[in-house]
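Data deposition worksheet. Section B asks for the primary sequence of the deposited chain exactly as it was used as input, without tags or linkers unless they were present during the calculation. Section C holds the resulting structure in token form. Section D is free text for depositor observations; keep each observation to a single sentence. Incomplete worksheets are returned to the depositor.
Section A, Depositor: J.P.
Section B:
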Amino acid sequence: MAKIKQLHQLIRFGISGVVGFLADAGIVALCTQSVGVRPIPAQVVAFSVAVTVTWLINRHWTFAEHASERWVQEWLRYIAANSLGAAVNNGVFAVLILTTTQFRRIPVLAVAIGSLAGMGFNFLSSKNFIFIKRHNI
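Section C:
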């Protein structure tokens, strides 16, 4: 039963990630193509919105029974953890590109592996650090 619950959480977390990606990519596209913002500032704005969107989905759907009443602290922990997850994602990508010819030839494979590593990190940190039952925290 616990394994099924964890699988459902992982699926919901993945769906949340897809929605976050769509928000991220959509905002970058909107900012760069319609508003004329440069890509890096556009990504800063987009990441901030996307991480908040995924936090809301995970807070109210994936880990609803563990959402904290102290939502600001929970949101800040989520942003911190997901920022580390982004570092894991990009770090794995960079290591693969810098060390393996195959990944340099087909970088999308490194993107996929980095994304899975980042998602795994974010799922585990969300499950074990952010959305846990806390007493007076």
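Section D:
Residues 2-35 form the longest helix (34 residues).
The mean pLDDT is 94.
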